[in-house]
Amino acid sequence: MTHWEDFYNTHLPPADFEDNRSLLKEFCERHNKLQNRIVLVTSGGTTVPLEHNTVRFVDNFSAGTRGSASAEYFLDHDYAVIFMYRHKSLEPFTRHFTGQQFFDMLDIADNSQSSTIAIKPDSVDVFAPVLAKYKIARETQMILYVNFTSVVDYMWLLRAACECLAAFEERAVLYLAAAVSDFYIPEDMMPTHKMQSGDGAPTISLQLVPKMLAPLASLWVPHAYVVSFKLETDENLLIVKARDSLNKYKHKLVIANVLQTRKHRVVFVTPTDSYELHLSREQAHQGLEIEEPIVADVVQKHGDFIVSAQQRQ
Ligand code: 9Z3
């Protein structure tokens, strides 16, 4: 496996990296001065390009539901939120009205002079509260959006965000819900141009992506409350893999989930404990989202963690 430092030495940052770094710096400095609690929410899947001039890529599964919903709940708990997401995956607030849903909520009235567009009366009740929360989050500058596409973009942004978050010490939460590729093609092993079918079926050899949780938890943000997610498709591996991860990286919490049941069941695994959070069929029917109790639990644990850090001082 490539060492994490070699990864940064051999892969250039994305074109918009410096702009994003400035945004992250400004956002963090402002919220640190205000002594706010802050969370980095990562969301969506990363891509692995197969060509430098990318026509094809391997993708990681994730719609961005977990991350975008969680970002909204962290705002409800007065956290400043860095929402680091896959370009075009779900975003907080707009996620409620995807595809044609939004257009179906609108009415257009034409007369000879002008057109007026209005929200249909029966949609106001659903639209207004979401819009109001969005406006407050934007006006109070409690949320910053930065996006990535490839696993390389993700790695550069993640480290830059951590560099800014380090100053918050225990007040920072890292909530790593993005589905990050475990395998990739290093840049020096990738063809420049689109692979040609005329050259026959390609043999694609993937390498292991370095585990960034290692430097993240031990070097970049050693005082932060770090939460990672573990995705499995085999229930039997879920807890074992989550525990392995905690033992290896010594962070605070792994939230484990199985692909097929992730929307109504997760398992919290801490160094001392493991327990399940789940939504009943009825709760799901009523529109409750599992991210609400997940975030409430993380916020509670983070609060306890801050208190015990203060007591040690
Ligand atoms: C998760 O497990 C997330 O909960 C999901 C959310 C990706 C399942 P959706 O976006 O799905 O709501 O559709 N994220 C972490 C996935 C991951 O890549 N974990 C790695 C691993 O399991 C590294 S910690 O090895």
UniProtKB/TrEMBL annotation:
On the tree of life, the source organism's domain of life is Eukaryota
UniProt xrefs under Gene3D superfamilies: CoaB-like
Keywords from UniProt, A to Z, are:
Ligase
Q: Which GO terms describe its biological process?
A: coenzyme A biosynthetic process
Query: From the UniProt record, which GO molecular function terms apply?
Result: ligase activity
Q: Does the keyword GTP-binding apply?
A: no
Q: Which family does it belong to?
A: Belongs to the PPC synthetase family.
**Protein name stated in the entry:** Phosphopantothenate--cysteine ligase
